[in-house]
Specification:
heterodimer, A: alpha+beta, Arc Repressor Mutant, subunit A, 3 domains, 17 helices, 39% helix, 18% strand, elongated, B: mainly alpha, Histone, subunit A, two-stranded antiparallel ribbon, glutaminyl-tRNA synthase (glutamine-hydrolyzing) activity (chain B), protein biosynthesis (chain B), Aspartyl/glutamyl-tRNA(Asn/Gln) amidotransferase subunit C (chain B), GatC (chain B)
Chain lengths: 495, 99
C-alpha cells in the first residue's frame, strides 16, 4: 500500500518543480515520410507502404505540411525557428516500430527557446519552452495471451502499423519551479493553453481522449533553498483533469517517501485513470541508451527566413487575446468567463452569438441546460446533437415571447431527439406560449375557484401566495402560459 | 590495455540484440580497439570552423506535398512479417508496461 501525505501539508514542507512533455499528432493528410493516408479508425494495416514498414531500399521524404505546421506551433509558442535543422535516428528494438528506430530530432530541433504565459488564480506564470521537435508516431501494439488473452494461453503482441509514421510534434518545457501549492492547476492551465493554441492553428484536432494530444508529467520535490530533487515521469495522462490529478498524486506520494527518509528514484510511472494513482513501470534496462545519430536518408533543412515570416503572417489571433476580446464583447465577469473556459464553450457561444443571439442568451443555454445534459450523458458539450444555429433560433423564440424557458427545454428534447430545428419541433409538438388572454383568464378563474383560501390571502395583500395559483394555471395549460402574464391577471382579479 | 572493455562490448551486443560468447567478447574488444585507434588518427586533423558532415549529398529542404498515395494491399503488407493474426502482425510478447 502506497503511503500518501496530505496534499496541503506536503506543499507546506516541499516545493514542487514541474516539467511537461506533450506529444501532438498532426492532422496532415499523409504520414510524415510517406504518402500513406492518416485516416483515424481504418482497418488494421491498410495504411502502410514500403517506407513506413521499413522494407529494404525504401526512402523517406519529409512532408512539407508537417514541417510548416511545426514551425507554426513554434512561432505561436514564441520560439526561435532553427536556420539549420535535421532529423536523427533514435535506436531501440521494440515491435511498435518496424524500422528498429524512430525518426526524430536530437541536438538540432526545429524550434527552441519559447514560452507560454498562463494565469492561475489571478497570478501569471511563464512556462518556458525548451524545444519543439518533429518525429513520427509508433504503431499500436495489442498484448494478448495468458489470463486476459484473446488468444488462449498465448503470450504475444499484435501490431497495427497504420499509426506508425504519423507526424508527431513533441513540446518540452524547461523545469517550472515556483508554483507551490498551485502546481497541479498550473500544469493543467499550461496543457489547456497549449491545446487551445494548437487548435487555433488548425494543425491538429488535439483530442486527448483520442490520443492526438498526449501528456507526460515530470515532478520533483525539494526543501526550500535546497537543490531540486529527483524527478519521476508519469505517462498515460490523457485528460486535463488527469494532468492535475497526476501532479497532486506525485506530490503526496513523493513527500511521504522523503518524510520517511527514503529517496526518490528517477523512473517512469503510469497514471491509472480509474484510481488516480501513478504506478511504477517495468523499467527498460538501458532505456536511455538510444544511440542517436543523424538520419542519413533525409536531407537537412534550412527554413528560409522568408518562409518563416510568411508562416508567421498566417498565424491566427492567439487564444488568450481572443478570450480577452470575447469576454469584453460578451460583458462577462472573470468568474463567468472562467466557467465558459472550463466548459469548453467558447467556440459554441461565439458561433451562437454569430447566429444572431445576445451573448447572455447564448451563455445561459450553453452553461445551463446544455451543460447539465452533457454532464448527465458524460459527453462533451460540443458532442450534443444541437448546433449553435439551433440554440440561436431557440433563444430567438424565447425573445419573441413564443416560448418560455420551460417550453424551450422541451423543444431541446425534440431537437436532440432529431426532430428538426426548434421551430419545427415547437410546431410538431404544439409547444407555444398561450398568448390568448381569454383562455388564460378562464384558467385563472378556475384556479381561484379551486383555491379559495389562497385567493383570500392574496386579497388580504399576501402577493407571494400567488405562486400557488400560477402553478395551478401552468399545470392546466401544460406549461404553455407566460408566468408573468398569469401573475398579472391574478393580481388584477384579486385586488 | 584495451580502451574498450569486455563489459562495454557486452553492453553494445545487448543493445543490438546480438548473442555473443565469452570468446567473442575478447575478440571483438580487440578488433574494436583497432578501429578506435584508427579513428584517433583522424581526430588529429584540425577541424576548427568546419561544420560536421552528416550528408554527402549537397541537398537541403527536400520535401513532399501532402498528397495521399496508394498504400500496400493489406495482404502484401502482412506478407513481410513472420506471423499474423486477425490482420495484425504477430510477434513474441515484449515484457514492458504498455497502456
Amino acid at each position: 500500500m502506497t503511503k500518501l501525505n496530505d496534499y496541503d501539508k506536503a506543499v507546506e514542507t516541499y516545493e514542487p518543480v514541474l516539467g511537461l512533455e506533450t506529444h501532438i499528432e498532426l492532422d496532415t493528410n499523409t504520414k510524415m515520410f510517406c504518402g500513406c493516408s492518416t485516416t483515424f479508425g481504418a482497418e488494421p494495416n491498410t495504411q502502410t507502404c514500403p517506407v513506413c514498414l521499413a522494407l529494404p531500399g525504401a526512402l523517406p521524404v519529409a512532408n512539407k505540411a508537417a514541417i510548416e505546421a511545426t514551425i507554426k506551433i513554434g512561432l505561436a509558442l514564441n520560439c526561435h525557428i532553427a536556420e539549420w535543422t535535421r532529423f536523427a535516428r533514435k535506436n531501440y528494438f521494440y515491435p511498435d516500430m518496424p524500422k528498429n528506430f524512430q525518426t526524430s530530432q536530437y541536438e538540432e530541433p526545429l524550434c527552441e527557446n519559447g514560452y507560454v504565459d498562463v494565469v492561475v488564480e489571478g497570478k501569471e506564470y511563464r512556462i518556458e519552452i525548451e524545444r519543439v521537435h518533429l518525429e513520427e508516431d509508433t504503431g499500436k501494439t495489442l498484448h494478448v495471451g495468458g489470463a486476459t488473452g484473446r488468444i488462449h494461453g498465448a503470450t504475444e503482441s499484435l501490431v497495427d502499423y497504420n499509426r506508425a509514421g504519423i507526424p508527431l510534434v513533441e513540446i518540452v518545457t524547461r523545469p517550472v519551479p515556483g508554483t507551490g501549492a498551485l502546481a497541479p492547476e498550473v500544469a493543467r492551465a499550461y496543457t489547456a493553453e497549449l491545446r487551445d493554441i494548437v487548435r487555433s492553428l488548425g494543425v491538429s484536432d488535439v483530442r486527448m481522449e483520442q490520443g492526438s494530444l498526449r501528456c507526460d508529467v515530470n515532478l520533483s520535490l525539494n526543501l526550500p533553498g535546497a537543490e531540486w530533487g529527483t524527478r519521476t515521469e508519469t505517462k498515460n495522462v490523457n485528460s486535463l483533469r488527469s494532468v492535475e490529478r497526476a501532479v497532486r498524486y506525485e506530490v503526496r506520494r513523493q513527500s511521504a517517501l522523503l518524510d520517511a527518509g527514503e529517496r526518490i528514484f528517477q523512473e517512469t510511472r503510469h497514471f491509472q485513470e480509474t484510481t488516480g494513482e501513478t504506478r511504477a513501470g517495468r523499467s527498460k534496462e538501458e532505456a536511455t541508451d538510444y544511440r542517436y545519430f543523424p538520419e542519413p536518408d533525409l536531407a537537412v533543412m534550412e527554413p528560409s527566413r522568408e518562409w518563416v515570416e510568411q508562416l508567421r503572417s498566417e498565424l491566427p489571433e492567439p487564444p488568450r487575446k481572443r478570450r480577452e476580446r470575447l469576454q469584453a464583447e460578451w460583458s462577462l465577469g472573470d468568474k463567468e468567463m472562467q466557467s465558459v473556459v472550463n466548459a469548453d464553450a467558447i467556440e459554441l457561444i461565439d458561433a451562437t452569438v454569430a447566429a444572431g443571439t445576445t451573448p447572455s442568451g447564448a451563455v445561459k443555454w450553453w452553461l445551463g441546460e446544455l451543460s447539465r445534459r452533457a454532464n448527465e450523458s458524460g459527453e462533451e458539450l460540443a458532442a450534443l446533437a444541437i448546433t449553435p444555429a439551433q440554440v440561436a433560433q431557440l433563444q430567438g423564440m424565447v425573445d419573441d415571447g413564443r416560448l418560455n424557458d420551460k417550453l424551450a427545454r422541451q423543444v431541446i428534447d425534440g431537437v436532440i431527439a432529431g426532430e428538426g430545428d426548434p421551430a419545427d419541433v415547437a410546431a410538431k409538438r404544439g409547444l407555444e406560449v398561450v398568448s390568448d388572454t381569454g383562455a388564460l383568464e378562464t384558467a385563472v378563474e378556475e384556479a381561484i375557484a379551486a383555491n379559495p383560501a389562497v385567493a383570500d390571502k392574496i386579497r388580504g395583500g399576501t402577493h407571494a401566495a400567488a405562486g400557488v395559483l400560477i402553478g395551478a394555471v401552468m399545470k392546466a395549460t401544460k406549461g404553455q402560459a407566460d408566468a408573468g402574464t398569469v401573475r398579472q391577471i391574478i393580481l388584477d382579479k384579486l385586488s | 590495455m584495451s580502451t574498450i572493455s569486455r563489459e562495454e562490448v557486452a553492453h553494445l551486443a545487448r543493445l543490438a540484440r546480438l548473442e555473443v560468447t565469452d570468446d567473442e567478447l575478447d575478440a571483438f574488444a580487440g578488433q574494436l580497439d583497432v578501429i578506435l585507434e584508427s579513428m584517433k588518427t583522424l581526430a588529429e586533423v584540425n577541424t576548427d570552423g568546419v561544420q560536421p558532415t552528416s550528408h554527402a549529398v549537397p541537398l537541403v529542404n527536400v520535401f513532399r506535398e501532402d498528397q495521399p498515395q496508394p498504400s500496400l494491399p493489406r495482404d502484401a503488407a502482412l506478407a513481410g512479417g513472420p506471423d499474423t493474426y486477425e490482420d495484425r502482425f504477430r510477434v513474441p510478447r515484449i515484457l514492458d508496461e504498455e497502456a
